[in-house]
């Protein structure tokens, strides 16, 4: 006996191609809309955070500007070097301080505007999105849950009908009244009808929500646009004002005349600065104390020739510039130039300590010690013969006359001023020193460089106190004096 085949469900005329329970959860519609609201809410939160961060940044910039302002110390160091009038460096720094303070105030104002005008708009929008979320959750969301319950009930009765229909086939129609497929079918139709009614109601609710959703999103966009337009107004206004401030700083600096500070500096310090219009100073216009003191005027000065000593005697005579001073010295210089090098005497003879020979034509001899060196050199110096030759016999007589005036007043033992302080000082009067000048403009004035006078310039000394003269008056005494020294 062949086994009976398993019972199968038979398609009826009421079956359709559409599944009574469609694939997918109908709550996905409301869930999708709720998820979209979450996206809008997060977008709004991002904008809130952005505007809040910008507001904090503006407040921080205001504090930074205060720090920058402290770098512009007031007043400027060495500020007296700058003109206090407007239009100069001092005015530029006043402008810098004013604009820097204005920038700090501007940043503070912008921060307050963003926090007080832009941020509240976004915060209110955020609250509206939350309320919309609650509205959908409590409306279409609940309808979707009711549809889910109805679908679950309908599915349960459809499965029960299938079981009892199969049981009917296998038992040959023996079923209970409660499980009669006819009864179950009618119950299923009832529940399916209820499900469809709830689905259609929920569908209408979702359509209404979707339609209102478009309007709500338009409201969101409009609100965001309003907030960002306000943001743009504040930020661009700040940028324009900052640009104007920076332009004012640059314009103030550009308008400073290039010679403004220098002219003011010269005007304030003209008593200290060099006057470029004044003529340069010259030695003729310069003066100093005691420049005309009687002790500074030579008794006679001019060119003489002196014979070299020792090995240099082979060279004969060499020319030099010689001066006899009221102090009793005969100084030898290489020339009469006071400017190109320091005029230091090559030889200095203290005439009161010297022995003077007679004039022989153009020549005469002086025996004495050179006092031009230091103290040690003066102590170690020995008496030597200095042979001089003038240009003419007349010049030789003039020089000899002045020289002997220092060596004829006393027969005491001569003593150099470097070795004794008991020498009677020369007391020559200015008027007496200026008498008897025979030639040359160089007497008593600074000689010009490198030009010797052709003949000696002589100023006869006035009678003075006792001088140390030569201790000998004849040839024998001269010889004794030489042997002694």
From TrEMBL:
Compositional bias ranges of the Basic and acidic residues kind: 476-485
Coiled coil start-end: none
Presence of keyword Repressor: no
Keywords tagged on the record: Phosphoprotein
Every PH domain range: 297-408
Protein name from the UniProt record: PH domain-containing protein
Chain intervals with Low complexity compositional bias: 452-473
InterPro entries per the UniProt record, alphabetical: AH/BAR_dom_sf (IPR027267), BAR_4 (IPR046868), PH-like_dom_sf (IPR011993), PH_domain (IPR001849), SLM1/RGC1-like_PH (IPR046869), Slm1_PH (IPR043453)
Residue spans crossing the bilayer: none
Disordered as annotated region, ranges: 1-30, 277-296, 407-485
Compositionally biased intervals (Polar residues): 407-446
Organism, as annotated: Capronia coronata CBS 617.96
